TrEMBL record:
Highest taxon of source: Bacteria
Full protein name: Extracellular solute-binding protein family 5
Domain Solute-binding protein family: 69-522
An example Gene Ontology molecular-function term: peptide transmembrane transporter activity
Organism: Pseudothermotoga lettingae (strain ATCC BAA-301 / DSM 14385 / NBRC 107922 / TMO) (Thermotoga lettingae)
Matching CDD domains: PBP2_NikA_DppA_OppA_like_7
Signal sequence region: 1-18
Any GO BP annotation: peptide transport
GO cellular component labels: ATP-binding cassette (ABC) transporter complex; periplasmic space
Keywords of this entry: Signal
UniProt keyword annotation of Signal present: yes
UniProt-listed PANTHER family: ABC TRANSPORTER, PERIPLASMIC OLIGO-PEPTIDE BINDING PROTEIN, PUTATIVE-RELATED, PERIPLASMIC BINDING COMPONENT OF ABC TRANSPORTER
InterPro entries: Peptide/Ni-bd, SBP_5, SBP_5_dom
Length: 617
């Protein structure tokens, strides 16, 4: 009888353990931060992108785990030469638009919605946002401002009345023509299709439009205008250009064609609740609700995952040993991920930054141009124990790379030099910095990491420990900030140095090399005027060309061997002058309850694809 009772209790415990909690809801936890914005044309972070990828859709998508094979989505065909939808030697792309697709508000998708979405994105073009990819691909520039100056010969800011925000009378017609003569003809509706006209062939164009690319997601024109977005007119577009994040009408509102719609963004709990859209054109998702929740710290995440109160968790690699082997939890490691994490420097910090102390080289702060001295940058490169980061923090799920280019992409060369961890070499460089003044006077600065990102926190504390060990006059405060604050601070030039990752927007070397090393790149742009001048200035070691020019040549070259050579040239230049310090190329992992079914990896995806998931033990 006693044995039977024990057996019964074990069986009861097993059945209780096996019971699927909240079968119609997927709860996904992370620690790195909440979304920055819901505006697809502003969002440029994985937390925002994970939500937007469920709410909106692109014209085409990746096929499962592939990053090279594409399938139709809101378009009915993927353009190629064989089906005749790529024309004019690669300068014209035709997308037949799918019929019968509904937005969340019930409106039916029309080709005009696609045209409006791309035109609105190009005109909005927020500073530091993702729209540079479309500007580069379609117009050979990196921003609306650059295009205005290219066409008119005048600075955009000089044509706008700073008091009213309206064009000065003598320039209004010129600005109207920016839309009527250039942008509008470049994206046009032709019957049931939308046609894109590029100024020259650009190989990665389809990748820029594909999959998880929120900058290429399709809005409902009528609804967007009703919310206060660009009204579609040629003589008003400047009123909607480069608005601050919170002033975007789509900052916290959504209306897409995707499988889920946002029903709540709880800023206090940093929780986004998605509800299934039963009118979704591919059929309803298998679960009714998705909750994406930034819990902020490990103990809460661990407890919820173990109890089955969470289904998926973005577990920092450093904590994996605490969860591996737990019954009911699946841990898949060493998954491919086209991503790198680096330390980069701002060569001209905003003078009003609260992270540079006194703003002088007096032992109580740093001058705004502190990192424009290459000896300072090189010293910081030597104080990172790269091998320890990979072994102890990443638990082996990463590798060293010479420059800011993943090993899976064209242009990579493992034989390029890499920085060693060396206190002695760091000391030598600090003694040379600013003609010896850094060593004599010391410095103080604040190094930020985004709260919840334990890997970046560890790297920041490592830098602090070794730098302060070298000279007691050197002081670094490590401080955590919420992801939206961190993002805003680096974009606006307030951070003296920043540890940041880059997940491929599209699987091509240009997406990394241009991002980090070109003066108009997303991170290059944030590294200050001295950096921009340095990479824009021709130099004999690059054959009389600038770093910018070499990057631009590599982007449009059709010969892979030539592209390889040019990208190696840029990386060697970047390493020599410490344009950035690559910390590691990470692999990733999936941690989820065993009852989560339908999951598959994709190296281009920052979060999950909830449409395919369901729960079943």
């Amino acid at each position: 009888m006693k044995k039977f009772f024990v057996l019964f209790m074990v069986l009861a415990a097993f059945l209780a353990f096996a019971e699927v909690k909240n079968p119609d809801t997927i709860i996904r936890l992370n620690m790195a931060g909440e979304p920055d914005t819901f505006d697809p044309h502003f969002a440029y972070d994985t937390a925002s992108g994970e939500v937007l990828s469920e709410v909106y859709e692109c014209l085409i998508a990746y096929d499962g785990s592939s990053v090279t094979k594409m399938v139709p989505r809101l378009a009915t065909e993927v353009p190629n030469l064989e089906n005749g939808l790529i024309k004019d030697e690669g300068k014209t792309y035709v997308f037949p638009i799918r019929k019968g697709v509904k937005f969340h508000n019930g409106a039916e998708l029309k080709p005009e919605d696609v045209e409006y979405s791309f035109e609105r994105g190009l005109l909005f073009d927020p500073a530091g946002g993702p729209m540079w990819m479309l500007w580069e691909a379609m117009f050979e520039v990196y921003s609306l401002e650059e295009f205005v100056e290219k066409v008119t010969g005048m600075s955009y800011s000089d044509m706008i009345d700073s008091n009213t925000g309206e064009p000065l009378p003598e320039y209004k017609d010129k600005l109207i023509k920016i839309y009527t003569d250039y942008i509008d003809p470049a994206i046009e509706v032709d019957g049931d299709s939308v046609v894109f006209h590029l100024t020259r062939p650009f190989g990665p164009f389809l990748s820029i439009l594909c999959g998880y690319a929120n900058w290429s997601m399709v809005l409902n024109k009528e609804w967007s205008i009703a919310q206060g977005c660009w009204d579609g007119k040629a003589d008003t577009w400047w009123r909607y250009h480069d608005l601050p994040k919170e002033q975007s009408p789509l900052y916290a509102k959504t209306n897409g064609t995707g499988p889920f719609r946002v029903v709540e963004w709880d800023r206090a709990q940093q929780k986004v609740i998605l509800e299934r859209f039963d009118g979704y054109w591919r059929g309803p998702a298998k679960v009714k609700q998705v909750i994406i929740w930034n819990v902020g710290e490990w103990s809460t995440m661990k407890a919820m995952l173990e109890k089955g109160d969470a289904d998926i968790a973005a577990v920092p690699t450093i904590y994996l040993p605490q969860i591996e082997g737990t019954p009911g939890i699946v841990v898949e490691k060493n998954l491919p991920y086209i991503s790198i994490t680096s330390l980069h420097f701002n060569w001209n910090v905003r003078p009003d930054s609260k992270y540079i102390g006194s703003g002088k080289l007096d032992g109580e702060g740093i001058p705004p141009d502190f990192f424009s001295d290459e000896h300072v940058r090189r010293a910081f490169a030597y104080v990172i124990n790269y091998d320890a980061v990979i072994k102890d923090v990443l638990r082996g799920q990463g590798k060293r790379i010479p420059a800011d280019l993943p090993s899976s992409l064209l242009g990579y060369n493992a034989n390029l030099p890499m920085f060693d961890f060396s206190i002695a070499k760091a000391t030598e460089e600090f003694k040379k910095a600013w003609n010896g003044e850094v060593w004599k006077k010391g410095f103080k600065l604040i190094l930020l990491y985004n709260t919840g990102n334990e890997t970046r926190r560890t790297v920041a504390e490592m830098i602090k420990t070794y730098v302060e060990m070298i000279n007691p006059k050197f002081k670094i405060e490590v401080r955590g900030e919420q992801w939206p604050t961190y993002l805003t601070s680096y974009k606006n030039g307030y951070l003296p140095a920043f540890i940041i990752g880059w997940v491929a927007d599209y699987p091509d070397p240009h997406n990394f090399i241009q991002t980090y090393y070109h003066s108009a790149g997303t991170y290059g742009f944030a590294q200050g005027d001295n950096f921009k001048k340095f990479v824009s200035t021709p130099t004999p070691e690059l054959g009389g060309k600038s770093c910018n020019q070499i990057i631009e040549e590599a982007a449009t070259a059709t010969d892979p061997a030539l592209r390889q050579k040019l990208y190696e040239q840029v990386q060697a230049f970047a390493i020599k002058y410490v344009l950035g310090v690559p910390l590691y190329e990470a692999q990733t992992q999936s941690v989820r309850r065993s009852w989560v079914k339908g999951w598959f990896p994709n190296p281009m995806r920052g979060g999950q694809d909830y449409y395919y998931l369901w729960k079943e033990e």
